[in-house]
Specification:
alpha+beta, FAD/NAD(P)-binding domain, Helicase, Ruva Protein, domain 3, 2 domains, six-stranded antiparallel beta barrel, 26% strand
Length: 414
């Protein structure tokens, strides 16, 4: 056959379609019993297909090796991705933050559109087929010749595209196979870490707030005096620490810290400066001056949060509001604007949306996705050292690099 694609995720399916559209004989190998297993659970089962922002904004949301993606993103941009799915019979909609979803809110419709297109272009899809190793020939230069399957059979091809994903959600088949293929063929690897993943905290009071979601809050992540990340949005308290969209994005900027402790500061009232917040609290206190402190905070926080905020403030819960000193009140204002938490690490790959790290892009041609070490061998998607924040940007990386790899492999045979 002309092209073998290893891995039936978003990058792999898109690579197979792109090569088949050029008239190539394409075989797509997937070790699971069905295609798109990880894609099925993305976006809580809704599948945030891409992001409809201007491409400059899409680039700005890439965390690692942004410049490497220039060719891939402009070869196959977010508008082309949206057109592909619309034409494949899956209507899309744009939500807050320019995030693109299927109108049905079902990731299965995205997968179905891809499968229909694979069939339309006669891609030979083989499920329950695991690749054991790559076949290369090293004469004057190293050239790909095919793959060896786990059952011992071999398949010959002039082009092989590795789209095996990373290490996140291992139950979906992301077990680092592509990293092994890359290392066995002489490619460099960058260290892998879970990313877009919840944080674990030293403070145990998060457990008392388990399940509480906060909207419209700000978060700053500091390594000493250095700001690693700041953002605005929604977060969630858990039994082990903190999660939610804002925290998952922050984890992109923490991953390289390798489990070192850093500080996170939560601002519960980002729309108000400290002086404005102080006036607001003064007003609340005036209205509740004869009440105990613990009974005067209902307008400021969710009820579940009141005991924790009182404890962190150091003010006696039974103290009358009119007895609270100016210093205590100002300290309380500062707490509301800067609730401190100590991050001790992240959760594991089983809870991580993506893997940070992978095959070094220094060994890949950014214009084609072809290996610089092995002719006819391509890499695309999460197997590469590329990642972005939440919002559809990581899937855009998969579609763009997959399409470029498939097109390059297909055109090489002209």
């Amino acid at each position: 056959m002309d092209v073998i694609v290893i891995g039936g995720g978003p990058a792999g399916m898109m690579a197979a379609i792109a090569a088949a559209k050029l008239g190539r004989e394409v075989c797509l190998l997937e070790k699971n019993e069905k295609l798109g297993k990880k894609l099925f659970i993305t976006g809580k089962g809704r599948c945030n297909v891409t992001n409809a922002a201007e491409m400059e904004a899409v680039f700005a949301n890439v965390c690692t090796n942004r410049k490497f993606l220039y060719s891939a993103f402009y070869h196959y941009d977010n508008g082309m991705v949206q057109s592909f799915f619309e034409e494949a019979g899956c209507p899309l909609k744009i939500e807050r933050g320019e995030r693109v979803f299927p109108v049905s809110d079902h990731s299965s419709d995205i997968i179905a559109a891809l499968i229909r297109t694979l069939k339309q272009y006669h891609v030979d899809v083989r499920l329950n087929t695991e690749v054991k190793s790559l076949i290369t020939e090293n004469d004057e230069k190293c050239v790909i010749k095919g793959v060896v399957l786990k059952d011992g059979c071999s398949l010959q091809a002039e082009n092989v595209i590795v789209c095996t994903g990373g290490l996140s959600y291992p139950l979906t088949g992301s077990t680092g196979d592509g990293f092994k293929f890359a290392e066995e063929t002489g490619h460099r690897m960058t260290e892998c870490r879970p990313s877009l993943v919840p944080f674990e905290t030293k403070e145990t009071w998060c457990r008392e707030l388990m399940g509480l979601a906060l909207k419209n809050v700000s978060v700053r992540m500091m390594d000493g005096k250095k700001e690693l990340y700041s953002g605005f949005g929604e977060m969630l308290f858990t039994h082990f620490g903190i999660s939610g969209p804002l925290i998952l994005t922050a984890s992109c900027f923490y991953a390289k810290k390798k489990g070192e402790e850093v500080k996170v500061f939560i601002d519960l009232k980002p729309a108000l400066g400290e002086e404005q917040l102080d006036k607001r609290i003064l007003k609340d206190f005036e209205e509740n001056k004869n009440k105990q402190f613990k009974n005067a905070l209902g307008a400021l926080f969710p009820s579940k949060m009141i005991p924790v905020m009182i404890e962190l403030s150091g003010i006696s819960p039974d103290k009358k509001v009119n007895e609270i000193t100016r210093e205590e009140r100002r300290g309380f204002v500062s707490l509301i604007k800067n609730i401190p938490l100590t991050i001790t690490g992240t959760r594991s790959y089983s809870e991580a949306i993506i893997t940070q790290g992978g095959v070094s892009v220094k060994d890949i041609n950014p214009s084609t996705m072809e290996s610089k070490m092995v002719e006819g061998l391509y890499f695309a998607g999460e197997v590469l050292d590329l990642d972005a924040v939440t919002g559809g940007f990581n899937l855009q990386i998969a579609w763009s690099t997959g399409h470029l790899a498939g097109t390059s492999a297909g055109e090489k045979m002209d």
